Structures are given as C-alpha cells and as structure tokens.
Amino acid sequence: MAFYVNTQKFAGFEVRGPQVPGGLAGFGVQQGVSIPDGGRFALSLVGNRAAMYADTGSGWRLVTAATLQHLPDLTDPDVRAGYRYGFGVRGDAGPAPLLLDAVEGRSIS
C-alpha cells in the first residue's frame, strides 16, 4: 500500500501479511511531500520494486521508491497470488470532509 499523510507531509509504503516479519513493514518514507487539493497519487509495483508518483497539475513525478526487502519474492507468481489490491482512506484532521473524485485500479500482465 502507498500512503500519504497530508497533515504531516510524508509518504511511503506499507506491506502487511502473514509472510511479512512482524506482520507489517514500512519502506521508502519520504518527508516534505505536499500533494495539493485536486492532486493525485499512484502506486506502481514491478517485481520487488515499488514507486509512488504524484500529479499536482503539471504531470506525474516520482515521490519515492523502494525495493521491498525482507519480504516474500513478489516476482514469483505463486507468491503474488496470495496478495490482493487494497484501498483505504482515513481522515485524521477532525471533522473535515474527505472528497474523492475517483478511485482506479489497473493491472498489466
């Protein structure tokens, strides 16, 4: 999962699962990230390499990238079959509304 914390201006990756040591692993945390209202972000996973991109109105740019070390080999189709795409939204700034224009998932075989 790629995450962005607007109130604290950082982004990164989390991987959860029974095969992950401790059940949760964080990677590629980048401080000083700002995605303005109306901005978009995307996660790309190719093999064991994750990348997060943001489009703030002037095209997509790399925010952070990481090799997902110490995890099961995600280049193995049998291992990947045990994982699913997920999406979540959480607000932590009080009663402010959350607005999503769209959510999209793609898989390229």
Q: What general outline do the C-alpha atoms trace?
A: globular
User: What is the number of E strands?
Assistant: 6
Strand neighbour order, sheet with most strands: 1-2-3
Please state roughly what percent of the residues sit in beta strands, choosing from under 5%, 5-15%, 15-25%, 25-35%, 35-45% or over 45%: 35-45%
**What are the segments in which pLDDT stays under 50 over at least 5 consecutive residues?**
none
What is the CA–CA distance across the termini? 19 Å
| Oligomer status | single chain
Mean pLDDT: 81
Helical fraction: under 10%
Based on CA atoms alone, the radius of gyration comes out at 15 Å
Which features would summarize this protein structure in a list?
4% helix, globular, 109 residues, mainly beta
Architecture overview:
The chain has 109 residues and is mainly beta. It is 4% helix and 38% strand. It is built from 1 helix and 6 strands. It has a 3-stranded antiparallel β-sheet, with no helix packed on it. It has a 3-stranded antiparallel β-sheet with strand order 4-5-6, with no helix packed on it. A hairpin with a 7-residue loop joins β2 and β3. The longest helix has 4 residues, at 77-80. The radius of gyration is 15 Å and the shape is globular. It starts with a strand and ends in a 29-residue tail after the last helix. The mean pLDDT is 81.
Question: Summarize this, please?
Answer:
This protein has one helix at residues 77-80; strands at 2-5, 10-16, 24-31, 40-46, 49-55, 60-67. By secondary structure, it is mostly beta strands.
